[in-house]
Amino acid sequence: MKICIVGLGYVGLPAACVLAQAGHTVVGVDVRSDVVAGLNEGRVHIDEPGISELLQEVLEQKRFSAQAQPEASDAFILCVPTPFKDGYQPDLGYVEAAARSVLPVLKEGDLVVVESTIPVGATDKVVALIRTARPELTQEGLHVAHCPERVLPGNAIREIIYNDRVVGGTTPEATERAARLYRSFSRGTVAETTASTAELAKLAENTFRDINIAYANELSMLCSECGVDTQELIRLANMHPRVNIHRPGAGVGGHCIPVDPWFIVSRFPREAALIRAAREVNIQKEIWVVDQVLQAARHHGVEQVVMAGLTYKPDVDDFRESPALRIVEQVAARLSQPLIGVDPYAAKLLQERQVGFALQSEIPLQAGTLVAVLVRHRQFGAALSEIETVDGAVLMDFCRGSGQPQLIKAGKAEVPA
Hints:
single chain, alpha/beta, Rossmann fold, 2 domains, eight-stranded mixed beta sheet, seven-stranded mixed beta sheet, globular
């Protein structure tokens, strides 16, 4: 098939390359001219293992090209962001713009798949948008479906190929045609359902994780109050055969987990009480971390504060919806001592935005420094081991516990009473 993918970000580009490798001819579309030019020259703009090599392969086979506008194809896949607006209301502007972009080249019998995560009923809105602009397309000739992405940044290529997928069409024919397309490259199960069920399934997946993390985050705050080791507590509780508590963190970040629950809350504000409460707990965890760092800095009289890890999760260069970045910005605004933000992807952060604090890529090791770990990148391993030998340093690890400050004395960490 000839396939047009609109949106060449963390989801669209790996999907385009996998489809091209599977034998389809793929046209990738993006509004960013530098991205289009770079991809056609073999340069990728995202940090994703294996993507550069796969792009080179499909370019050499002449199965992939990037451009600014869609062109006539057999199928169109929309892979654009779906953030929320003020009041945590879903913003479908990118999805609607992507759907409008394919209208001039859409023809009878084409397939349109929305991979973007969307609220319940949004696929029907895409159908209505197309019908309003192109009323000559018949009921039988318009095939629109939703197949939500299930991609973990840092392992996107493998997950696109091997993860099970859910496909839901607005008609049985649309479901069947979309499922056939995904089975052409997926080695996982491709489950067929309705568009509304597929929409809610994706939201339910990420909301489950948000609720579980909220429980872990709440436990970590309780543990801090009573002096219990959070990591040990969760390990012991998870020995029960029917318990699986997630790990706590500094909050919840990324483009899915902290966003998708609000799509349910916005659609079902009265019924989604637990979902709303979990979101509020995870937001409160960020505020709590800020307060803990500020209190520890005052209590120990440190000379500077180092906050390690600014992306939304370890070992990716993605700062979208990063709780760590929000925490560092709030601490910097209230801290009397110098603050250094540390992240191996610091250069990319500076390209994307200005920051109001010092920024570097490696953790400085010296006495009189408080190091708060917000995201545990692999690159931090050696430094975090070595800091436990720095006499007079203070370590707060929000990734492997409640963040209780540990004062380093003669190479041994001690948790103050």
